[in-house]
Structure formats: C-alpha cells, structure tokens
Specification:
By secondary structure, the protein is an alpha/beta fold. 37% of the residues lie in helices and 23% in strands. It has a domain of 250 residues: 3-Layer(aba) Sandwich (Rossmann fold). The structure holds zinc ion (ZN). Zinc ion binds next to loops.
C-alpha cells in the first residue's frame, strides 16, 4: 500500500477569526433576503484547471451561503465575450498613417468555419459545468453577456462619470498613465484598434461622449456613449471592474440581496485596494454598500506561477501533466469520478475559511488528491 502525503497547513488571515465564510456578513444579512453572487471569466478557451476550481468555488460558496443564512442564493456569471481572440485569428498589424497599429477581434465577432462564434464554441464546456453544479447544489448559473452588461444604464453612467473626471479616475483606472481604453469595433469588419491609437473624442458632455475610431479597410467610424445609445463599447479590466459595481449594488438593493463577487485570489490585495475600492468609492458608494468579496485560491504550476489562460492559448503548457490545461483533457484523464472527487474537495473548502484563505494550491497537490495519495487535512492554529 502506498503511503499518503501528509497534508498539514496553517490558518492564515481571516481564517484566524472566522470558522464559517458567512460570519463577517451576519449583521448585514440580518436585514436582507438572500445573496446575489457575481463572477466572471473570459471564455477564450475551454476552462483550464484554475478556472475549473474557481467555478467550483463559486458553486460551493453559493451552497455554503444558502446553508449558513437559510436564505436563497443567486449566481450571475459574466461572460466576457468582448475578450480578444488570441488563438484562432490573433492580432493583425496594419500600417496606418505611417505607424504600425495592432487590430484585434473579439470572441463574439470571431466566426469559425462552422458558422458559430468562438464564444459560443468555448461556452459549451462552461455550460456543461454549470449544469453539473446546478444538479449538485440546486443553484443555477445565469449567464450575462458582456453585451448585456455594457448596455446597463448604470454601467454607462459610471463610464461617463469616469471619463468626465479623469483627474481623479485616471490614476485609479490607469496608474501607469496610459490612455484609458474604451474600444469599439468597426461596424463593417468588427476589428478593433487594440491600443485605441486612432480613437479620439469628438464631442464631450456630462451625459454623452462621441468617439471616432479608424479602420484601415473601412475608414472612420463613430460611436456615442450615452444612457440612451445602443452603440457597443468594450472596456478593459479596471474600467469594467469599477463600472459594473453600481449595477450589482442597485440590483441587490432593489431585491434586498447582498451582492457578493467571487474571483481568483490574484484580484485581492493591491488590486482591491488600488483599483476596485477607490474607484467604486469615487462613484459615490460607501464602503458598507460594496459587494462582499470572496477570493478563490490560485492554482499554480510546480514553480508557483498561476495557471494562465493566455499562456495556455500560446500552448506554453505542453510540459504540464495532462488534464490540467484543458477541461476536456481533464475529463479524458480523470473522468466523471475525478470531477466528483475534485468537486467534493472544493466543497469542503467552502466549509472552513482555512482552505479558501490559503493563497494557492499546486498542481502537485491536485495530482496527489486525484491519485488518492493525499492525506486528510491537518489544519494548524
Ligand atoms: Zn472595418
């Protein structure tokens, strides 16, 4: 019989002062009727192992909140189909007015030879996972497209506030001083000026901003940012992270729910304190109204680097043990029983903050777990 690997680790951070994830929110939840969880992902490939465990954390935390508070829980998954297609069509470089300009196309606008868009193709696996979680927990994942998110009047109002108050928002949204990127595709070919090099403001007022961009094939095109405009706007991560929060707060307020965001641990710490909190505060919200946040532990390679979709898309993971770079491979290697083992394990993470507050788990940890060689957790402190 093979000996199992001892699995000893210490409590860190919040897990020293809590034994259930819901404990910090008990006062807030006393006046509310439920929890509305929001999470997001760029479906630019099948989920890799890190995305898989994050999605499992979302489902498991939803179940834990429902058990802890005895109140209903909803989940909204923000599908970021505005993310660029780096895999199939990639970037194209064109010389415009003597300058090399990079153009990208979104997952939504990248159409495969089968006629379906890349986002539809990649979301198939995500949706099969959502069905699995719903069967396990009874809580469905509602998918909200980025298109729907950016059309929300509160999202548009937030963008207008940011762009009309660059003095304060600039250092928050773009601390390195780069231009704030609000992109929109050419209406004919759907390609986008990646760096917004030839995107400019034509007219600017408190309630509307008119932009103009340039397509090397179809010339100038305009888009109007306003609450009553249907023009589509792509936003980069810091802008989106701030602009979507008023919608989450107001929707939750209307239904007497506590908004809660669940994302990977790399969005905690400096990001939260330098971008998210100051940005949302500047939009006029008090700290007590901010969404509660739970961060899922990061999955790292053997050297401690986070598994990354961009690296995966660039096929950097050929050296990685099979099953960790692509969910379909995972199912081929570990099957339904492997999925169930992993899910039951992540479910336990939601029952004690000691697991959830751990920064990371390595792929070695999961190989031991899935191979039945990981000893029972011995949590110190
Ligand atoms: Zn064009």
């Amino acid at each position: 019989m093979t000996q199992s690997q001892p699995n000893t680790f210490a409590r860190v951070g919040m897990s020293h002062v809590t034994r259930r994830l819901g404990q910090p929110y008990e006062t807030r939840m006393a006046k509310l009727d439920g929890v509305h969880i929001n999470t997001s992902s760029q479906p630019n490939a099948n989920p890799h192992f890190g995305t898989l465990t994050t999605l499992m954390c979302v489902a498991a935390v939803a179940e834990e909140m429902s058990d802890h508070f005895g109140k209903p829980v909803q989940i909204t998954f923000d599908q970021l189909e505005n993310a660029p297609d780096r895999k199939v069509q990639g970037l194209k470089t064109r010389i415009v007015k003597g300058q090399e300009i990079e153009y990208q196309i979104s997952l939504q606008d990248s159409i495969l030879s089968s006629g379906t868009s890349l986002v539809q193709e990649n979301m198939k696996t995500f949706k099969s996972l959502f069905d699995f979680f719903e069967q396990e927990t009874g809580v469905p994942f509602r998918v909200r497209s980025y298109h729907e998110c950016q059309a929300d009047p509160l999202f548009r109002t937030s963008l207008l506030k940011v762009l009309n108050d660059i003095e304060h928002f600039g250092p928050i949204v773009s601390p390195s001083g780069e231009a704030i990127r609000l992109r929109f595709p050419c209406p004919t070919c759907k390609w986008v000026d990646k760096g917004s090099v030839y995107t400019r403001v034509i007219e600017q007022a408190e309630d509307e901003i008119l932009f103009e961009a340039f397509c090397p094939d179809h010339g100038e095109h305009q888009a109007r940012l306003a609450v009553d405009s249907d023009d589509f706007f792509d936003t980069n991560t810091p802008l989106r992270d701030i602009a979507k929060v008023p919608g989450l707060i107001e929707a939750a307020r209307q239904d007497k729910l506590m908004p809660m965001m669940i994302d990977g641990r790399d969005w905690s710490g400096r990001w939260d304190r330098c971008v998210h909190v100051p940005g949302v505060s500047r939009l006029g919200y008090d700290a007590s109204e901010l969404p509660a946040r739970v961060y899922s532990p990061v999955v790292t390679d053997t050297l401690g680097a986070k598994l990354s979709k961009s690296l995966y898309v660039g096929s950097m993971y050929s050296e990685m043990p099979r099953g960790f770079a692509d969910f379909n491979d995972f199912m081929e290697v570990y099957g339904e029983s492997g999925l169930q083992t992993l899910w039951e394990h992540v479910r336990e993470w939601s029952r004690d903050p000691a697991y959830m507050d751990r920064d990371s788990y390595t792929i070695t940890y999961f190989m031991l777990l899935l191979g039945g060689k990981l000893g029972p957790a011995n949590i110190m402190g």
